[in-house]
Design brief:
The protein folds into two domains: 280 residues, outer membrane lipoprotein receptor (LolB), chain A (Clam); 106 residues, no CATH class. It contains nine helices and 19 strands. The strands form two sheets. Strands 1, 2, 3, 4, 5, 6, 7, 8, 9, 10, 11, 12 and 13 form a 13-stranded mixed beta sheet that branches. A six-stranded antiparallel beta sheet has the order 14-15-19-18-17-16, covered by helices on one side. The longest helix has 12 residues. The chain is globular and about 60 Å long. The chain starts with 17 loop residues before the first helix and ends with a helix.
Length: 405
Amino acid sequence: MAAKANISRRAARYAVPAAVFGVAAGAIAMVPAFANSGGPDLPAVTAQQLLEKVAASDVQQLSGSAKITTDLGLPKLATGLLGGGGGIAGGSAAPEDKVAQLANGTHTFRVAADGPDRQKLTFLDGKDEYSLVHNGDDVWGYDSKSNEAFHEKAGKDAAPGAGKGGKDHKSADRLAASPQEMAQEVLKAAGPTTDISVGDTARVAGRDAYQLVLKPKANGSTVGSVKIAVDAGNGVPLRVQLLSTEGGKPIVDAGFTKVDFAKPAADTFAFTPPKGVKVTEGGPEGHGKGEGRGLKGLESIPGLDALTGAADGKGEVKVLGEGWASIARIETGSQKGLKDLENDKDAPKEAKQFLDALGDKVSGKFGEGRVFKTRLVNALITDDGKVYVGAVTKDALVKAADAHK
């Protein structure tokens, strides 16, 4: 599978504002897709047999088109913080700007892969295109709208096994190459806290597929289930759907709309910057010379500064619980709380707007705070500067805060 591709591993970190989603955002950065109709008549299989089929799949080459639709129910202000200029090197060709946009709305792609050293993703939103190309030792990001490109070479001292010749592509790691990669990560993380079964069959991208259904065993998670459509012929995951405990349409629906498992043409992965394009060089020790954009205004919010970079991101993090119901407790060390911000007449407008966008006020043995709510990840920000965040319900956050105040 193209799951060995380097375009992927840490994409989730950039899919939503780090100040709110720190953990449990892994389900957001799944790459491309959608497609389904009818249920083909296929031989019965057990969940174990289907898991073995996925594990045995070794598809290295593919091309096609895909779509991802994400509906997190983000507040308008938070949606406005996604994407935009800045990125790793201050330019809009930087990969995480595009990854951030996957946290909201519908996006379409062309995708191609030829083993672990050659992948290409092309975003097709509107008339403009953004391409991320990994070809051997080179990674290119090109944005046609801004006429800018980002380039990065593999680091000579990268950890062994991190890419061709033991080299690592820091920027390529920020995008997922295919639904296979996401499905493998979900299955790897499932463990004993998950019930796994075989659901209805499906047609995805014109191919017959079984569906693995993963459900949390414990109560408290916002995730109702994860459905992974698996190609009945070669075991490649074709689609991933993340469903909410509250029902409604999927939180994330990602999968191929068209797929071909033949070897892509070699020139698919060739890239030369067009004449006049501004090129920003990245490097193994960092991501260009520019400053990251950060989250404008949020670094001024007491209790969130450690998560937005104002305190060098050194908040102490402790994971409570396990599996789907795990919660990250972040001790920011802030000397002020949300009430201080509420009463501060000189606080930045952006900070006030973010505070207003936060959800319900809550209280308990821990004291008082506010809950930032989405359909997937929720965060309790206490008045004394602690943050509890996870893919769990508001009640689960309050219970955790009471038990670990």
